[in-house]
Amino acid sequence: MFGWMVMVSVALALGAIAPPAFAQSTAPSPQALDAQWSGARAMKDIATQLSFGRRGIGTEGHAKTIEFIKRELAKAGAAKIETQSWTDDNGGSPLHLTNVIGRFDLMRTNRIIVGTHYDSIIRAYADKKNPQGPMPGANNSASGVAVLLETACALSKLPPSAYGIDFVFFDGEEGPKSLGAGDPDWRALGSPYFAAHLAQFYPEQKPTQAIIFDMVCFKELKLIPDAASVSFAEGEVDRFWNIGRQVAPSVFSSTTPGHVIGDDQFALAKAGIPSFLVIDPWFNTTQDTIDKCSAQSLDAVGHTLLRYLYSQ
Fold it and tell me: What is the tally of structural domains in the chain?
């Protein structure tokens, strides 16, 4: 996952961005929404990604993940599936990167981004016993991908929400060395590129907001707001966590902002999109395996997201 984390109480240079209110819509009941989102199915999507092996930039597993995401978005009935490919010079060591975008309800000009990253770190740098070992990446990064794909599947069975939804799977979140926090010069790659080319997807108006998911399947999941996200989109953070406390009080137990966490919400917020991150950091070791994940944790996140997308 993310490249850096610092203890700080924020007064960020980017400043607070006030998100606009949702449009009114007739939403299915919370129970009807919950019935369409399955943590058990999301666990299967995690297992599929793990079967690809290492998923760092340029690996065979990375390419297989791209095709898997596109395939699942097509099954979910996305109105449009796009790829955004480019080469990052990376100081003379070029990296070939691809963002994947699945778009629903294209006729709606008011849109929301639901995002995650799909690239994985190249080795388990934080593992004290085996820092050169392979990084399985069940929580980081397969869980975020699973949440987005299951949400897309659920939307295919539900009436449209008040907003068009774009699922964006960012490449290169682990940075040019694919080491996440193990790289002192970490910088996200995919989300800044996407933010710099917003007009390609949003020629008339920017998305209303963006929600980023990362590391959300841990059995003992505890979600607290990222301090930067509170600065970027305080009202929406509050609303998401309030819904989360109704769904899973033990998971969304605290609304007190924690660390500032560098992730894809930064680039989108800098581009003027109110953006927040949903994450429970669990660092990068060889123990990031599917047995540490929980369908119940995924349900807590997925049910909260669906209710949030349909809330008025």
Answer: 1
